[in-house]
Amino acid sequence: MLRPFTRDDTDDIFEVFRDPETMKYFLHWLADSVEDVYGFIDWIRGVQEQYGFSYWAMVETSSGRVIGDCGLIPLEGEGPEIELGCDVRRDKWNQGYAMEASRASLDYGFNVLKLDQIVAATHPENKASQHVLEKLGFTFDRIAPYWGEDSNFYSKQNPNKTKN
Questions:
Q1: 109 and 118 in contact (C-beta within 8 Å)?
Q2: Closest by alpha carbon to 133, among 79, 69, 86, 78?
Q3: pLDDT at position 38 over 70
Q4: Torsion angle of C-alpha atoms 109, 112, 117, 119, degrees rounded to 10
C-alpha cells in the first residue's frame, strides 16, 4: 500500500535510510539521525501539498510497517520533468515490492495526473534498479548529472496518449 508519509513513520523509514547497503547508490540521502528523517518527511509532505503527489510511504500490508518509499516528484525536487523514485528496506528486496509500488506510481502519473512522460535516474552501477525500470517499460535516455553525480536517465512515455 502507498500513502502519504506522517511523522509516525519516522522509525520505520529511518531503518531504510540509515542502512549503507540499502542506500549504497544514494549516499547523499543517507540518514545520520532521526532529525534527518524528520527533514525528509517534512520536505516530502510539502511536495505532496504543492503538487498533489510525492514519494509515499510503502506499507507492507501484512505487518503494517513502512518498508520503503516510492512515488513521483519533480526531478531533483524542482522539475520540470517528473521522476519515479523507490527505496525498499534490504530485507524486503527481491520480493516484488519495488515493482508493485512503481507500477502503482506510474499508473497514478499517467492515468490520474495525465503526465506525458516520467523519468528515472539511477547510478550507473545500480543494475538492480535499471533492471526494474526496463521491466516497467522504461528506455535508456541519457547520461546526465543527478544530485551532482553522473547518472543513467531512463524515460517512459504515457502509453495512453496517441502520437501526433
A1: yes
A2: 86
A3: yes
A4: -10
Domain for residue 91, yes or no?
Answer: yes
17 is a domain residue: yes
In angstroms, rounded to a whole number, what is the distance separating the alpha carbons of residues 126 and 27?
13
- Count, in order, helices (H) and strands (E) of the chain: 4, 7
Q: Is the pTM of this model over 0.85?
A: yes
**Range 43-55 average pLDDT:** 94
Backbone angles phi, psi at 81, to 5 degrees: -70, 155
Mean pLDDT of 35-57: 93
CA distances from 115 to 46, 120, 161 (A): 20, 14, 9
Q: Summarize pLDDT for 84-101 with one digit per residue, the tens.
A: 999 999 999 999 999 999
Residue 99's domain comprises: 2-120
